[in-house]
Amino acid sequence: MTTRVLAAEGGTTNFLLPNATIFVEAALFLIVLFVFYRFVVPPLSRALDERQEMLRKQVQDREKATRTLQEAKERYEGELAEARAEAARIRDAARADAARVRAELREQADREVERIQSEGAQQLAAAHEETTRRLREELGRLSTRLAERVIGEPVDEDRRSTVDRFLAEVEQAPAGGGGS
């Protein structure tokens, strides 16, 4: 039925042949394209360019932050190694100081021991001399009294000097000397 309507209206029209509407449609399409490129595309291009710039800047910032972080990490590790080396030097110096102080104290203690031993030896020698002198005096008195008792009369100074000489000879005789 549609074919009869077309035939009745104007005869035969070929749809492949352009008519005036195609030119109007082409002009409208060009106007829409012009408006689109004039008013729509520039803001979209600006927005895309801004977004692209923002992304590029973020990438640069990230790379810069990564480099800064790496540099800070390297500085930190370098300073940490330096601090460890300094701590080792300080520890070694402290050990050396401790050894030196220990040696000085040991030397001082040895000198003090030597001084005390020397003083003790001097005191012992002095006490020995004093004891020997007292014993000699006492032995002389006792020998004189014994001689006075044996003789039955008082001993004079001459005889007393004889007793003192005898005691001196006994003192100088060897300690372990028997008669053999």
Walk me through what this model shows.
The protein has 3 helices and no strands. It has 180 residues and is mainly alpha-helical. Helix 2 crosses helix 3 (157-172).
Any key phrases for this structure?
single chain, 180 residues, mainly alpha, 3 helices, 87% helix, disordered N terminus
Summarize the structure.
This protein has 180 residues and is mostly helical.
Topology:
Elements (H helix, E strand, L loop, with lengths): L1 H8 L10 H132 L5 H16 L8
Helix pairs in contact: 2-3
Order of helices and strands: HHH
Low-confidence stretches: 1-7
Q: State which percent range the strand residues make up.
A: under 5%
Mean pLDDT: 84
Large-scale geometry: rod-shaped
Largest pleated sheet: none
What is the total domain count? 1
> Helix proportion of residues, in percent?
over 70%
How many runs of DSSP E, i.e. beta strands?
0
What is the gyration radius calculated from CA atoms? 66 Å
Total helical segments: 3
Head-to-tail CA distance between termini: 178 Å
Helices and strands: which structural class? mainly alpha
